[in-house]
Design brief:
Strand content: 25-35%
Number of domains: 2
Largest sheet: 4 strands, antiparallel
Number of helices: 1
Oligomer: single chain
Radius of gyration: 29 Å
Length: 168
């Protein structure tokens, strides 16, 4: 008789062990599922421009110590850059509180045409002459018509030498 009691106790412990595993599984399975969905969605490609946006090499070096670039020494200052390897229509370079913003002058929301070159207006906004779309100059946030910001490019700034390197 004592042997049977021993087996019953072992069997009871095994059942509790499996119940505990099942509860843990029911708890963690939804969490794993949610994280899987988030990871899959975060890896999807974000369209930052229309499909017909020109893909041109960007490789520009500006010495901000030159008089032509003095506007970039103060926050809110901006310039147009129309040099070789600065896109098909040039760049807009803006000094921000955190560094710089470099925008492509092609409108990001419509295919390039004759009248889709972005322009700065009143030193506070960027506009598309074709449809009147607007963006905030300092942040690039769309405010009218367009739903996406202008295409931006990476940069490296050496404050000691005043050299701003822009690239894609």
């Amino acid at each position: 008789m004592p042997d049977n009691v021993f087996y019953v106790v072992l069997f009871y412990k095994d059942i509790n062990y499996f119940k505990m595993k099942r509860r843990t599984l029911y708890f963690f399975l939804p969490i794993i599922f949610i994280f899987s969905i988030l990871i899959i969605n975060s890896c999807s490609e974000r369209n930052e421009t229309v499909n017909c946006f020109p893909n041109a090499p960007i490789n520009v070096v500006l010495n901000l110590n030159y008089p032509a670039y003095f506007d970039l020494q103060n926050v809110g200052g901006w310039i147009y850059v129309n040099e070789q390897q600065c896109g098909t229509r040039g760049l807009i370079v803006v000094r921000t509180t955190n560094g710089f913003k470099i925008y492509d002058r092609n409108a990001p929301h419509i295919c390039p045409e004759q009248n889709t070159t972005l322009n700065v207006q009143n030193s506070i906004k960027v506009i598309c002459p074709k449809d009147g779309a607007e963006w905030i100059l300092i942040t690039g946030e769309p405010t009218k018509i367009a739903q996406i910001p202008p295409k931006t490019y990476r940069y490296n700034f050496d404050s000691n030498s005043g050299i701003l390197s822009i690239f894609n």
